[in-house]
Amino acid sequence: MKDGAPFVLMTLTASEHQPSLGEAADKLGVSLEDLDSQFGVVPIDPEKGTYAVQVRSDKAPAPSTEPESGEYHGPWSNPKIAPFGPLKR
Question: Which residues pair with 10 in a beta bridge?
Answer without folding.
Answer: 53
